[in-house]
Amino acid sequence: MKIKSATFNVLISLTFLNLSNCVKVEIIYNGFSNLVSLEKLYFNNYTNLKKIHATFDGMKNLKMLIFEGFKNLEFMPMELKHLSSLQAILFKNYKKLKIEINAFNVLSLIFLDLNSFI
Questions:
Q1: Are 89 and 68 in contact (CB under 8 A)?
Q2: What's the pLDDT at 40?
Q3: Domain containing 80: what range?
Q4: Is residue 38 classed as helix, strand or coil in its secondary structure?
Q5: How many domains are there within the chain?
Q6: What are the φ/ψ torsions at residue 66 (nearest 5 degrees)?
Q7: What distance in Å separates the CA atoms of residue 107 and residue 118, rounded to the nearest whole number?
Q8: How confident is the model at residue 107 (pLDDT cuts 50, 70, 90)?
Q9: How many CA atoms lie within 13 A of 18 on its CB side?
Q10: Strand boundaries in 33-118, DSSP class E
Q11: CA–CA distance, 68 with 64 (Å, rounded to integer)
Q12: Pairs from 25-29 (Cβ < 8 Å, separation ≥ 24)
């Protein structure tokens, strides 16, 4: 199963999106760029997800980004430079993902949680 590019295009007033327990999703494409009002994006328990092809550009109001419980995630481009309002990032319980050394360079974070990042 895939979350495609145009999935959330019409939800321009949405401020909170919880995408928990989508255990059948294997790939997420860039379906978030039109969520210009979104302030909090929460992903939890994606046991089969292997790739995220999302740059999150256009999400200028996003303040909190939470990724938790991605056991098989191997690839996610850290294109976070477009998130000028981002204050908090939580990456919890990863087993295979690697974070590039400059992933957080242009961000003004006040909270970064890398709990159980193996």
A1: no
A2: 96
A3: 1-118
A4: coil
A5: 1
A6: -125, 125
A7: 23
A8: confident
A9: 2
A10: 40-44, 51-52, 64-70, 88-94, 111-113
A11: 13
A12: 25/1, 25/49, 26/1, 26/2, 26/50, 26/51, 27/2, 27/3, 27/51, 27/52, 27/53, 28/2, 28/3, 28/52, 28/53, 28/54, 29/2, 29/3, 29/4, 29/5, 29/53, 29/54
d(CA 82, CA 101): 17
Indicate whether 117 pLDDT > 60: yes
- pLDDT surpasses 70 at 83: yes
DSSP bridge pairs for 42 = 18, 66
Verdict on whether the full-model pTM lies above 0.85 = no
CATH number at residue 64: 3.80.10.10
Token pair for 10: 């019409």
- Mean pLDDT, rounded, for 58-70: 87
Does the structure show a pLDDT above 70 at 16?
yes
pLDDT at 118 over 60: no
Mean per-residue pLDDT of the chain: 80
- 96 C-beta neighbours (distance < 10 Å), count: 12
Q: Which amino acid is at 19?
A: L
